[in-house]
């Protein structure tokens, strides 16, 4: 969590300014950016709790009608309480937080009244740091038995890895043992006590986002990382994991590139869950309950980041994304892209001033720029709709798309260029747009509200500098009578093949298997059966596929749920490689590679090659051979001989500034090696 500024300030009356809107997106004569939208590339379905924000008990506006209505207008469907790290000092029964400020009229019942007015589900943080399992169970009883609030989602603590176990301590924790082992044991105890009161609730455990501290670090006395220990020991007792993400960045431009890490981070987190959480790990969901930026929190960089991060995470199956937070207070004031930024983590102005009164925020509850981006996301991500694949050939323009239940498309376009407009061509696969001018809602730099109208065309739009636009495109054909989408596919994978299977549908259907590929899916094959073996895959490559059904009249279903798999190394080869991360410190590590010659003859002079899976990984130094990196390709060369059956070991220091997806496939003198 981020600690509030001027948390005890008295908040005043709500005022919301309304001024003329910006012109938004419009038709373009010539496009400089290509956007591809592929409805055959089905991603996650939007859930009922997708769009969330944080409330905090230091905020006297928590639960007020004005705030509840603003959040409801933005499409907020989940509210978190009682507020980040305050949760680990908060005692719900007497509404106290020893050592912290508690504003009047912020108790649990007031929060629930506001949540109901907003139309949002609660996510409640049980006190792990200074509380007990019995206290949490009593809260469940009060909420769901006594009051009938039907509060489903409960997390055990907040950022509990920040309790000093890894050196940094900001989270309250009265346990003598501050290890992930102890946290996991307590999660099990909390879960058992709380579910004994109401077995329908869902329990979440705190993990760390891959690529963020202390990811990768093994603490003193531990057998694994925080995530590994918690999942291994408490996986059977939880229903979801809870992560936070403050991506940092030296400035707005760098910060806005960090959303490129989302797919890899969620992929790694899902891998960790599947590997360590035991039987039934696929049932465990992922929540992102805090995110924000360090530069431009109240201005357009914050808005652009919010639009990208919510959409990107929801498309990858995260069931709720929550901004930190509703109100926070004045921070360091600066100018960002020509606009005053108050350094405030809140979506809405707290209406307060600095100590000498020389700088004051706008009137209380005035929405900051990220609020308006949130309202566009709220309109994009409606419960039951489905994210679909998109691609952009311009790094400064991102796109996210949702298929509505009625067949229409909603396309969110984010122009991260602060100084130039970009014209985009919209290209569709598996979708035919209707004639007519689409509806466009947009928010530009310096605007004080979202402007809505019609503009451009289904195939071309112009995006203002530093803007977010939501384009709604009507479908030009009826979907009535189309086959049902196939069920969840599974796959059996080797190094170069994958046998993909799915549940049978109605009789007489043909099934088509597509690989997602940057907004333009590639068809891998078709069959009238319920499995397909795909060949010619690349070892160590990640693939995401969908299955679609087509009936005898040519009508095509919507896409199956996505399936992501990674091909491995060959089972046997003339060489074997073992790669290990032996000492990780959160943004770098010592790695070792053992290379074994399985041939019957020696190898004299050799080159080991591999490719980093991401662009934020590198070798800073290496030993026992000559190391070179060109782009993402690493080559390790030696003039020495590797005898038949012999093993050579080399080492290096690796750096990473995002999710550290380790390489899995290596070649020795061009031959793909087996993996140890």
Automatic annotation (TrEMBL):
Pfam families, per database record: CBM_2, fn3
Region (Disordered): 474-495
Protein name: Cellulose binding domain-containing protein
Domain CBM2: 568-676
Organism: Actinoplanes subglobosus
Domain Fibronectin type-III: 485-570
Keywords of the record: Carbohydrate metabolism, Glycosidase, Hydrolase, Polysaccharide degradation, Signal
Segment forming the signal sequence: 1-27
Record lineage: Bacteria, Bacillati, Actinomycetota, Actinomycetes, Micromonosporales
SMART domains named in the record: CBD_II (SM00637), FN3 (SM00060)
